[in-house]
Fold:
Amino acid sequence: MADRSASSGSDQVVDVIVVGSGSAGLAAALAAAVGGARVLVLEKTPLIGGTSAMSGAGTWVPANHHMLAAGLDDSPEQALTYLRATAPAGWQEQEDDLWQAFVGEAPAMLAFLEAHTPLRFELVHHPDLYVEAPGGKLSGRMVSPRPLSRNLVGRWRHRIRGSTLPQIFSYRELVVGAALDRPLRTIAAMLPTLAYRLLTRRVGMGNALIVGLLKGCLDHGCKIVASARVRRLLTDGDGRVGGVEAEIDGRVERLLARRAVVLASGGFEGNPDLLARHFPGGVGLIGGPRSNTGDGQTMAAEVGAALARMDQANIYPALPTRYEGQRQALPLTVLYHPHCILVNRLARRFVSEGDPNVGVTLDSREPATSRPVHLPAWQIFDSQYARRNRVIMRYARRDGSWLRRADALGELARRIALDPAALEATVARFNDFARSGRDLDFRRGETAWERFYTGDPRRPNGNGALGTIERPPFYAAPYERSILTTKGGPRTDAHGQVLRPDGSRIAGLYCAGVAMANPIGTKAVGAGTTIGPCLTWGYICGRGLLRENA
Structure:
């Protein structure tokens, strides 16, 4: 591939080029820079942070130093046991080496970030999604960044990507606290704190994560270039990746990397063609920037990389909102509260509404066609749910085409093209469960995860997740296969180096985050098992490329 190689006196030469400025990319850049490398970060859009900046920044890190200091027991071995016990069938054979690398490096990654950036993480006492499985933990593996001021990054302070979530809160305040259930009361109680944050430009969640990472990168000499679209990878005659071709300010430039190129360019949820190929049957709302079009996956394949896990994604409950002028997913857990159910196209329940991986079941596919088994699916609820979830209702009403309403269940069924008798029978059966406090079909409300969100000892049935659907008006909202980010891409080894189909390494090429064939796919194992692995694989790549290309 001689046409892809280049070097001339005008070429810009650095040690490491990182493609993408999300959590994985900045973690890779920081690790390489702290190790002495001269690093260039190229961001496709004018804004820094990608999907990570838009996120809640829940960060799953087993055996992290905060939980150990709090007296909570954990170890990489226990985390590995948990990953093996909860993984989809057949994954251990392919992913075990990567799981071992992740659990071994994640604790060091978190300590490294706090040592080399202004980031400070706090414990968020989430349980693992499957506490009951071997190695599961009731608390401690989940952390999230404390708020930071955007002023820390100087001229970049107005270039951090915005979010559909209110980034003035921390994850603990917004998701675990009362900000969503009782927003006015929360704002009133936090008014002095929120005013101080506004005055000092302090942000939380994903924005705080990116501010801290960016500040660390700038302090360690990384050069950040925005509006720089990487178009292809440059290789030499032996197939080694030695740089990129990028379009910057309307000019095509060839940028060379002495040590390595790290692809951390995000998912492909903004690419309709790739979505149709790997998620046939339709995708609803997306949660990432529409600039996430799979550039890294495409460029890696062009130089011989094996792509894998392209059918995996962070499929999450979402409400419709607006972002950059288009409909966008607002990730909110809308199913945990009582007085609602989820039904499929046959008007039947098909999963516990409190299952933390509803997206996995929603993505169940017919073997012959790979099309979804259950879609279209609908969330059905009544006025009791509507009164209890005012934030959800406010967002729902902003999109006039999203929410349906009727005074009777049969009428509601006809409006959404379901069998009225089937829906009435489903609701009647569920109401019997709600009165008794036991869901005999799906055991809703019985796991530690569900009790964390819905435990309410004051409920007469003893099960905080169950409540009847019987008081009109009745509502139906489409429950789409919404994708916050895809999680497939180049297959890598345990050092983050990209592999060919025969298992050989592509010299000089690394991949991290959701641009890689992620070893934790659609089935999450804890809140934060997107960001935690993204940071860890960026850290692994940044350190690994220094060892491999010294």
